[in-house]
Amino acid sequence: MMGCTRRLPLIAALLGIAFAAPVSAEEAYDPWPGLVQDILNNRPMNDGADVIAIEMPYRAEDAAIVPVTLRSKLSPADARRIRSITLVIDRNPAPMAAKFELGADANVSEISTRVRVNNYTDVHAVAELSDGQLYVAKTYVKASGGCSAPAGKNAEEAQNRLGQMRYRQFAREDAPASRIREAQIMIGHPNNSGLQMDQVTQLYIPAFFINQLKLTQDDSPVLSMEGGISISEDPNLRFTYVSNGAKRFRAEAKDTDGHVFRNEWDVEKPGT
């Protein structure tokens, strides 16, 4: 009887394993090592806990417009700077969502945008520093169907707003002393992913999205973006940078159909 008693916990454990929900091959598969090879040329990765932060909601309210914020964690005493940040949504059909190049003198410390998320997934932010090293941080997001979700605007409305840009600035208490500015660029564009279906014809809408964006203060680079299908409809970038005293802020965007959109604003009088 004592032998049977001792074996009960073992039997219970084995039964627990037998009846546990099976893990699908897709859930067990980790695409990240392959993405490091394909997107980042298999370069070595360092822990980015003290370099780069990535913030996203754990469970997204709308998979087609999931907010993401990338923030530098480098100490002001650190002589290095972040040259670029690559945003990778591991399980999206086109995992590289965007690559941001940061102006050498703009001291961009934070970038926020909105992305589509197609499956429950890890999301990685890879920062390349001025020392040539890569540093990675990641988060996990529960969302699905974002890349195939219908557009928020009809085709005619989207066409009427194509390429329209708005520039906004936000007041900061520390701005007068540090020249730090917080700004936002919004571009009217459907950013079709190629996975969305026309509800009338039942045909897939061809991919059509902003794939390049360059922002400058006068002619000095602030921030540029190489974008993909994961950037949400009506691309929206909010970011911090340090003013060099320029009077004009300029934006130039290009899309996959070859359209070029340009605009500029008086730094002291931002707006449409």
From TrEMBL:
Q: Name the InterPro entries on file.
A: Fuse-rel_SoxYZ, Ig-like_fold, Ig_E-set, SoxY, SoxY_sf, SoxZ_dom
User: Locate the Ig-like SoxY domain: which residues?
Assistant: 37-147
Looking at the record's lineage, which domain of life comes first?
A: Bacteria
Q: Which UniProt keywords apply?
A: Signal
Question: What Pfam families does the record tag this protein with?
Answer: SoxY (PF13501), SoxZ (PF08770)
Signal peptide residues on this chain, from the entry's feature table:
1-25
- The Sulphur oxidation protein SoxZ domain covers which part of the protein? 175-265
Q: What is the protein name stated in its UniProt record?
A: Quinoprotein dehydrogenase-associated SoxYZ-like carrier
Species per Swiss-Prot/TrEMBL record: Bradyrhizobium campsiandrae
